[in-house]
Specification:
six-stranded antiparallel beta sheet; globular; Thiol Ester Dehydrase, Chain A; 137 residues; 3 helices; alpha+beta
Length: 137
């Protein structure tokens, strides 16, 4: 795992130097996705192509989205400060250029999320507890 993190950190450093000339911190998911739509019950994200540093690091010859990125992207889009991850179960790979659908069920300070692809095939499930600070919205 440390080899992957080292490669990812190096690629992100190169990416930030290339695209962020002012030297500000570059978020790991920067330019990884675009928000297609968002409401209280569903978020749709369009992933970028395989040239993004995350896909170059995970894995160079077979790019797939690392599982933690689903959580990070949702946190950003929904403005959630995640306090506890209760479940992250992925059943299918998420590839570059895919459109990803997050179906959200809220209960108190807990979100249960079903992840689907464009064919309505289950990618996985996430459940987490959170505080909503809306800092990303």
């Amino acid at each position: 795992m440390s080899r992957l993190l080292s490669v990812l950190e190096n690629l992100l450093y190169q990416y930030s130097n290339k695209y962020n000339r002012k030297g500000k911190y570059l978020n790991i998911t920067s330019k990884l996705y675009n928000v297609v739509s968002k409401d209280d019950e569903k978020v749709i994200l369009q992933l970028t192509d395989s040239s993004h540093p995350i896909f170059k690091a995970h894995f160079p010859s077979n790019p797939i989205l690392p599982g933690f990125c689903h959580i990070e992207m949702l946190s950003e889009v929904l403005g959630d400060e995640i306090t506890n991850i209760l479940l992250l179960k992925l059943r299918k790979k998420t590839l570059p250029n895919e459109k990803v659908f997050y179906i959200i069920t809220n209960k108190d300070s807990r979100r249960k999320i079903k992840i689907l692809d464009e064919q309505n095939t289950l990618i996985g499930n996430i459940t987490y507890e959170y505080n909503n600070n809306n800092s990303y919205i």
